[in-house]
Each structure stands twice: as structure tokens, then as C-alpha cells.
Design brief:
Length: about 70
């Protein structure tokens, strides 16, 4: 199946029987991030944590939900 990255609109192909494809179908995930954007967000998240941002509570829950969506089995 074709999936489109919500950030850069890049279209990637997922194998129909891959875990990601199943997640997208079953949970109707609205968000798909290509590997490039996924890495970028992961990096930003790490940076935000290491800078000791005191507004962490809001950001934390947001990041958590993104990570959960992406890696629910972690
Ligand atoms: Zn992207």
C-alpha cells in the first residue's frame, strides 16, 4: 500500500503484510511519517529533553502520544 508522509508529502510503499501497514489499516492512523521526518522528530524530542526545557509537561505528553502512535509495542 502507498502511504504519504504528513510532513513532507513523500509517498512511500509499505508491504501489505508489514506491521506498519497493519497498524495503519486497523487503527486508521491518520499520521504517517517517512523515515526522514521520523528521525528528525526523534532528534528534536531528544534535544528538547536534554536542554532541560521547563515547559516539558506539555511537550512530554505530546511527544508521548506521537511515540505511542508510532511504536505502540515499545
Ligand atoms: Zn516526511
Amino acid at each position: 500500500m502507498d502511504v504519504k508522509c504528513v510532513i513532507c508529502d513523500q509517498v512511500e510503499q509499505l508491504k501489505d503484510d508489514s506491521i506498519e501497514a497493519k497498524k495503519l489499516r486497523n487503527r486508521r492512523m491518520r499520521m504517517y511519517l517517512c523515515s526522514t521526518c521520523d528521525e528528525r522528530i526523534a532528534k528534536k524530542t531528544k534535544e528538547r529533553h536534554t536542554t532541560g526545557d521547563f515547559h516539558l509537561y506539555k511537550n512530554k505528553s505530546l511527544n508521548k502520544s506521537i511515540l505511542k502512535e508510532k511504536h505502540p509495542d515499545d
